[in-house]
Amino acid sequence: MAASAADVARAYEDNKLAQVLYHDWESQTYDDKWSISFDERCTAYARDRFEAIVGELPQEPYGTALELGAGTGFFSLNLRQAGVLDEVHVTDLSPGMVEAARANAEKLGFTVEGRVADAERIPYDDNTFDVVVGHAVIHHIPDVEQALREVVRVLKPGGRFVIAGEPTRVGDWYARQLGRLTWKAATTVTQLPPLREKWAKDKGQLDESSRVAALEAVVDLHTFDPAELTRTALRAGAVDVRTHTEELTAALFGWPVRTFEAAVKPGALGWHWAMFAYGSWKRLSAVDRVLSRVVPEQLFYNVGLTGVKPA
Ligand SMILES: C[S@@+](CC[C@H](N)C(=O)[O-])C[C@H]1O[C@@H](n2cnc3c(N)ncnc32)[C@H](O)[C@@H]1O
């Protein structure tokens, strides 16, 4: 169901309600929107993000794992497929997302425990998990330090948390500028008569996209400076805290591409385009790994965070 104008108005009043409304609504189409799958492509992506942040993969899967803001299960279900996690518990503030993650796990042939939960008040006992993971979640949480304190509480002594895919302050700025320019250009050019029929979204679809963009601005609460994020995790009680940044040219390419995909008629671009976009993103990510030796970390788009509960 699409977000109505009244929904958007209510969401401005109450941020947690906005999160539930937006993500419940998104849960139906989330995997398509973000090209999420549970095959080798996304399993390798999840495993590589985990390894890049932690520095190595575990010899054995972590026994009990919790994911915060799991969405449809992209990170933890793929990490389980990659042999990084064993018993997975998914949590999310949005009931629709928890349902979607459970359904995805079932399709993959395993069951996960799913709970609707606010990361600022995790409904599990102290010292429960060997690892806590999250992907693209803490930028939605009002009190990040409180959420990390909760993460440390539910971890067993010596347990690790791994949070991937959060926007840096600088990266978010350039991604949004590029997104805005691409949106304006694509929606203007596709309205030209020779292109309109094949490429243009109709007015209803464009109005809905604008409402979604308005809600997105409400639910995206933070961007992060890596050094500041490290200090937040240390204040929350973690030790051995590290950040890792990635995606520079890949983000400069990827955000306009993603915006273009959202700006044209659904289905107009096809499979060849999807392969071109993914292939280019992968090649540019390889360039970024080389650049990371010389470019300051805060200029990259994504930041990941890891830390350990004191033994
Ligand atoms: C951008 S989505 C990411 C979903 C998934 N981790 C992924 O990478 O595909 C952010 C998720 O965080 C959830 N979320 C937002 N605020 C939350 C909170 N306070 N506690 C737990 N989850 C929250 C949303 O419902 C949404 O599913």
TrEMBL record:
Example GO biological process: methylation
Positions of the Methyltransferase type domain: 66-163
Claim: Lipid metabolism is one of the keywords in the record: no
The keyword Methyltransferase belongs to this UniProt entry's keyword annotation: yes
Protein name: Methyltransferase domain-containing protein
Cross-referenced PANTHER family: METHYLTRANSFERASE
InterPro entries according to UniProt: Methyltransf_11, SAM-dependent_MTases_sf
Top-level taxon in the UniProt lineage: Bacteria
Single Gene Ontology MF annotation: S-adenosylmethionine-dependent methyltransferase activity
Keywords assigned by UniProt, alphabetized: Methyltransferase, Transferase
